[in-house]
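Title: Comparing notes on inverse folding

I've been comparing how different people in this forum approach sequence design from structure. To keep things fair, I'm posting one structure and asking everyone to reply with a full sequence. Here's the target:
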């Protein structure tokens, strides 16, 4: 390998920085996913990493996949009101024991993740669905 080829390859610390950036944009990632993101970081330039990080973050903003360690099984986004974060909604999570939890959720810009509040816990699917509908109907429509 000549000097010109060697300088064209990304440096290990730059690869680590790009891998961390992609992993943060993707959310919680397991080791195989982290390794795949490191391979992408090795192969792509900064503009591609920027575009991919933006894409991953945009996908995560569409709706939460987990809240408080529980998978989200239903989500409805609703409108903007003064003093309230613009990306919000209601979500139902499954607790793994056949019961459901209902949360008011919002996208937290500083942490780049969904946060939930005002939970109603351990209810049946029918009660959870009604509560989610009540929360979204009581708020401003987009």
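Reply #1:
Here's my take.
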């Amino acid at each position: 390998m000549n000097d010109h080829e060697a300088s064209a390859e990304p440096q290990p610390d730059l690869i680590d920085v790009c891998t961390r950036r992609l992993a943060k944009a993707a959310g919680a990632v397991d080791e195989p996913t982290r390794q795949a993101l490191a391979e992408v970081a090795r192969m792509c330039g900064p503009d591609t990493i920027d575009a991919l990080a933006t894409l991953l973050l945009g996908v995560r903003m569409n709706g939460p996949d987990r809240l408080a360690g529980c998978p989200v099984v239903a989500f409805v986004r609703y409108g903007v009101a003064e003093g309230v974060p613009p990306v919000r909604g209601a979500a139902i999570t499954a607790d793994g024991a056949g019961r459901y939890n209902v949360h008011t959720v919002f996208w937290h810009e500083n942490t780049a993740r969904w946060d939930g509040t005002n939970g109603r816990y351990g209810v049946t699917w029918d009660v959870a669905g009604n509560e989610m509908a009540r929360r979204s109907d009581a708020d401003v429509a987009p």
